[in-house]
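#random but structural
TW: two for the price of one
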Amino acid sequence: LTGGPSKWDIRDKVWAHLEDSGLAEFPRPVHGRIPNFKGSLQACGSLRELGAFSRAREVKVDPDKPLEGARLAALQARKTLLVPTPRLRTGLFNRIVPPPGATKEVLRICATSRGVRDYSVPVGLDGKARVDLVVVGSVAVSEKGWRIGKGEGYADMEYAMMVSMGAVQEDTPVVTIVHDCQVVDIAEELLGDHDLTVDYILTPTRIIKTNCKRPKPQGIIWHKASGYEMLGKIPILKTLRYREKQMGKDVTLQDEHPCLANSTRAAELNKKEMAENTQPQAATGSAQMGQSHVESDPLSPRLEGSGTITTVYVGNIPPSLRVSELKCALREFHVTPFRLNWQGAQHRAFLDYQDKVTAERAVSSLKGLSLGGNTLRVELARNQRNKG
């Protein structure tokens, strides 16, 4: 059944129809967005009629404009409201926390994008979120529950991340809220394993129960993820990927291939480090809490005094973290320094690199990584030769 409309054909048709028929609402044009539409508040109001909503304690609602009414309904019903950080730049969720005794007007503000900015606290990967209901935006959806988003894959990725961190179960209901004209036929062939399906569709005139039997994504499908670009955009993915790798899962990315220019050099370093890791010195690195613990790599020519060394500061290291765990993460991101100055008692470490480019790559690779429950603070050391 090839030759039918593609996902992009369907998106373009829906966006054009909403604009041409005068159903599109601010922000406009709706092209390229989860479209806001006339009657969105009415459609969101139907959420209160769902048993799944009444039973839910924690509700996750996407930050899109047409879902404002759904966020308001959750706040008015005194539920815990989680909203993904826009484009997942910092973490995964923010919890919207209205001020004590918030009036209707303040709750309304909390439900807008300003609410995410002014009244929210970030929820980390270890925030133990248990989401009972998921509300996502859509560009198009079929009565069978097949969903098409705006094409960037964020809602699918958010859901997969929630599966990975144990925040949703297989039976956690997923709701989408759209205009009636966005409910269209979608061929099942267009759906991939990573595509999120929905259980309920709310429109200004209907509540549709899809009885969708297609399994939802079981977690992040790493080999489908467009690799390093996605990891660069979504720092929290690095942490999830690192965790899943530690658990023995295959986390090879779609565009990952061993094309590191210095892969033999990296392999030598890895071997060298593996040997170091089995030496008692490395094992007791975290036990000698009081004193700093410096290791340098004899493979590297001594660069003292040549002034080209760039130092990276890693802070907010949790007391429970061992030096071997940090080294393991450095290897994972291919940013092994030639010398590591571990100062566990001060919750920090300094990494020495032979050139600025590698040091900067280390900073961008490690930024947003959480180890042992803490998000590491990573930056170029203040005077570049900071010995602490």
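TW: number two ↓
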Amino acid sequence: SQQIQFADDMQEFTKFPTKTGRRSLSRSISQSSTDSYSSAASYTDSSDDEVSPREKQQTNSKGSSNFCVKNIKQAEFGRREIEIAEQDMSALISLRKRAQGEKPLAGAKIVGCTHITAQTAVLIETLCALGAQCRWSACNIYSTQNEVAAALAEAGVAVFAWKGESEDDFWWCIDRCVNVDGWQANMILDDGGDLTHWVYKKYPSVFKKIRGIVEESVTGVHRLYQLSKAGKLCVPAMNVNDSVTKQKFDNLYCCRESILDGLKRTTDVMFGGKQVVVCGYGEVGKGCCAALKALGAIVYVTEIDPICALQACMDGFRVVKLSEVIRQVDVVITCTGNKNVVTREHLDRMKNSCIVCNMGHSNTEIDVTSLRMPELTWERVRSQVDHVIWPDGKRVVLLAEGRLLNLSCSTVPTFVLSITATTQALALIELYNAPEGRYKQDVYLLPKKMDEYVASLHLPSFDAHLTELTDDQAKYLGLNKNGPFKPNYY
């Protein structure tokens, strides 16, 4: 397929440094949001015989057809979803109010590739309110809320996305956002790196003129560092993933709440007394383990990093190798950012009705390709739930075909997304307005002062009151009274 041939051209995206200062995250050739097997290989879904959105002629109420969504008639329903999300995203709304007069993004032409949900719609509309023009596609083929995409299209955003896109649709949508007459992007907002990769590969002249890239996932950031190391990154990029307001909140608290939601909605599983193995004890793993432990599950952790492993031990979890517990566990959850963490050998040894799912951004953690073999039967049980049946009748329950569980099968708490979205908006404003030379062609962390500003915008929701340092205390600590309070490496 087109994608594999792409990956071959793209050596700089797929080779990685073995020893970097960062924890090396393996990345497969297959891109983050799709793999080279379409789900149609194993079964057909009733929606497959509907007309593809690409074939439909649709216009919004202003007569524009500069979008491609499932059904523009769902716009009103989507608008209500966005309004509900706005209630819990007060920081973005206050950012809109504060900056609406001066329009800090006037002239910005932002091309974006993120999950398209009610929450990201609030971000997109905030960027528009701050003066930007936006064109948007989805970074995951399952996470788009069709009615929200319709509402954005109705509001005049050029959005190209629907739930259940094929591999080909996925790249087509990204291409439609970038390749348009009389409009050239000057900023990129990406989640996973696929959009950046496409522009870099297909439109090098556009890539060179981009003023800044903002990336929010481990996977995408890893790919940016690879480009930078290879000397191929000719624009400044902001690594939002490793900013405190993303890592500590989106990854930890968001997953602590959404892991149970995704599992309950798909399988109705009872967690008390169940044996669960969580692969990876980074921020996502910590959140998942905390939630499962609270419901009475027996939780094992696998880790490669001795520091994370020791944290897991101190938190009361047994650290094991996957092969040691694979025969007895009831649920396997991956959250490593790596590839082939759960292999066919592991899947063969699982007990009947074991549930397997992935909470990491990349869909490469579970080797789903190895299950697309003639000796195994796939049975679609519910939306996003497959039973993979072995010749002896054993079944493994695979969720979302190994893709992101919470965004594919449930929703994510709005408030946490407000924190990440505000961070992204400020990163775009910062890069777009930075004076010539402030940012070189490299990957940067968000300045700590901005992280603290994002956090302070969210405190009023809890009626939280900050204490101020006295002059004497500030001098004693060697800090400015107004911050930043944390060193840059925090």
